[in-house]
Amino acid sequence: MKIIVPVKRVIDYNVKPRVKSDGTGVDLANVKMSMNPFDEIAVEEAIRLKEAGKAEEIVAVSVGPAKAQETLRTALAMGADRAILVETDAEVEPLAVAKILKAIVAEENPGLVILGKQAIDDDSNQTGQMLAALLGRPQGTFASKVEIDGDSVAVTREVDGGLETVKLAMPAIVTTDLRLNEPRYASLPNIMKAKKKPLDSKSPADYGVEIAPRLKTLKVSEPPVRQAGIKVPDVDALVAKLKEMGVA
Amino acid sequence: MKTLVWVEHDNASLKDATLATVTAAAKLGEVHLLVAGSGCRAVAEAAAQIAGVGKVHLADNAAYEHGLAENIAPLIADLMADHDAFLAPATTTGKNVAPRVAALLDVMQVSDILSVEGEKTFTRPIYAGNAIATVESTDAKLVITVRGTAFGKADATGGSAAIEDVAGPGDAGLSSFVGAELAKSERPELTSAKIIVSGGRALKDAATFEEYIMPLADKLGAGVGASRAAVDAGYVPNDYQVGQTGKIVAPEVYIAVGISGAIQHLAGMKDSKTIIAINKDEDAPIFQVADIGLVADLFKAVPELTEKL
Fold first, then answer.
1. How would residue A224 be classed by pLDDT, with cut points 50, 70 and 90?
2. Which residues of B touch A161 (CB under 8 A)?
3. Taking all residues of chain A, what is their mean pLDDT, rounded to a whole number?
4. Over the stretch B20-47, which tens digit does the pLDDT of each residue have?
5. Contact A160 B93 (CB under 8 A)
6. What pairing do the DSSP bridges indicate for beta strands A162-169 and A230-232?
7. Cβ contact (<8 Å) for B287 and A231?
């Protein structure tokens, strides 16, 4: 079985985003970029399935600028076998990404597509579900456990009330939540080896997908800022404050 | 504009998240509701009472019992032939189903809206709420998820909408429900609690979390939340998590105990009316958003607070 893992290059998890003063977006110049954390979990899950003998090949895919190659090399260093970069400098919305992935799935015929549940830049949480819809295949979103059993996969999902398990006919789409696994760090020898692994370059046009955005961003602004309040010296003062507020 | 709103429910009762979504939908136009489930007529009857609702579509079929997106999305896509916008609360159910509907309609979804600025213009948080984008859809139809804390709740009574049965395509044969482990708690649900007591990594382990956080929460009649660090460390289950990728809450009072205040956590609670922080590190970022801060060792301060309330 083959697994496709789409990955996105995003602002690093630890960087505090700054809104550009002209209100056109978030300033990404000279900001550290990394693989979307949920996608790292997706790569890790695919590697574990391969290590467990459930999968033979892992193909990492990214839709984005030339520099997304670095993100794909990270996936290759972690353990993916080859990569496809669908290169474009445009911002590509989840719907268009899902259409590109659909075309790649048609070529590659994977048993699973595992991807992050959301990217930490646009926080859309859509691509996996959209891909599943376009393919007419089942989806196991917000996964905290993935178990393959023959031609189906059981996915335990993190839902608002706790956990839920669904059984999906394969091929299936899985999106990862935080507690699915802890991604490994790539070792230096593996980083060196990853440089030699195959990386194909494509364009959205190669897949016949129109990527013009459907949503127009009119403005990006700072959220309302919360002012720091007061500090109280001890518990008694805190109790007094709570009583003033009618809480206690 | 004619809107269709997803009613969140457990086949027995309607969930509060629905009411905020109705408020958002009412800003766009006429509000129709969809109750999809199994043996859920009581939910449809409750939904028909919501103020301002024009019609309730009831799809009662075993295939819809567990909200499987593979079965539900085609049903919604069919109903969208007669509606201009589909709105679902940004709960795990809404987030699972809505994008599947959007793709079937070839629509780019607007996720997690904070406000309705015009017929097709909305604000939404990006970068964990560190920026707010104003976006305008150019699609013929709209698919939207709604952040519950950003909209007031519609009145649960006062309406008298007609209930109309719809058949829908039924079981797509792609997926099945195996089981669920749902937390049973006497405490208020996080997303509707008036007061929340949340614990962080500083609580040390599951036993101390229980020993220090729960009595304080019980004294205040509060819901209990946690930071991602506390959930990852296994102190409490995943459904306690407040943050960018957990639950978004905005209670009257949020008490953060032993939580440093990572960006991801603040994204989930910074719209709380009053934030109270107890942390022994006076430089912890949580104090930059807290209305009332107490620099103290939580293992001393929390029991004292619980006792004195």
1. confident
2. 180, 182-183, 239
3. 96
4. 999 999 999 999 999 999 999 999 999 9
5. yes
6. unpaired
7. yes
